[in-house]
Design goal:
The protein is α/β, with parallel strands linked by helices. The chain has helices at about 15-30, 70-85, 105-110, 155-165, 190-210, and strands spanning about 5-10, 35-40, 90-95, 135-140, 170-175. Helix 4 links the parallel strand 4 and strand 5 (about 170-175). The termini are close together.
């Protein structure tokens, strides 16, 4: 059964652009047939626990003597990893908060980056998610490609580094930028660009959901 793991991290329950795009993707995914399943983890409504023991960043055989995490914390981490194991495609709603990913999404990232388990370390060439398709929906108040804000996007690069380089996933990034144009009067001139880019992200999401497997 083809399974989509959908993660949402926007705290905006009223007009979230990233949630609109992940909604569109999920709808197009399930429209492919009754066998197309969506597992939805809302990281705001049901946040994953923060890593409370650094030993959880390491495979058991790479831990130092005495590093024995709480079994409940290990079980919670295993549940998060099992969701990725079962998923054929990963979909992540990733708005930019204070120039980086929301803390709820960062907690999830910390849980899944485990040296010697999900990421290589030393002679352990462990990349069980290598080649898995991951779609990142990046909603941002402005554009950070050029101008005075250039280089201040520390959200997408984090996901590219962890999911793409370390875990070996195949990443596609869909952008919906200038989201502040409808809220901040000084940015009103960017409204047409914001709407056009959001419409494009919705269309791309539907097209990807209809073809990825």
């Amino acid at each position: 059964m083809p399974t989509l793991l959908r993660l949402d991290s926007s705290a905006d329950s009223r007009s979230s652009r990233s949630r609109e795009v992940t909604d569109a993707f999920a709808a197009a995914w399930t429209a492919r047939g009754p066998g197309y399943e969506v597992v939805h983890r809302d990281l705001v409504a049901e946040p994953v626990p923060h890593v409370t023991d650094s030993a959880l960043h390491w495979a058991k055989d790479l831990r130092q003597p005495g590093e024995q995490p709480d079994p409940a914390a290990e079980a919670a981490q295993r549940e998060i990893l099992d969701e990725i194991d079962r998923a054929d495609v990963l979909l992540i709603g990733a708005p930019l908060y204070n120039y980086t990913v929301p803390s709820t999404l960062k907690a999830w990232i910390d849980q899944i980056h485990v040296l010697g388990v999900t990421a290589p370390f030393g002679d352990k060439e462990t990349q069980p998610y290598k080649g898995k398709e991951a779609v990142i929906v990046a909603s941002q108040g402005l554009s950070y490609d050029d101008g005075p804000q250039q280089g201040l996007d520390h959200g997408v690069p984090v996901l590219q580094e962890i999911l793409g380089r370390a875990l070996g996933m195949e990443l596609t990034v869909l952008y919906s930028r200038y989201t502040l144009a409808s809220r901040v009067p000084q940015l009103a001139d960017f409204k047409p660009k914001a709407e056009a880019e959001h419409a494009n992200a919705l269309q791309q999401a539907r097209e990807l959901a209809a073809t990825l497997s």
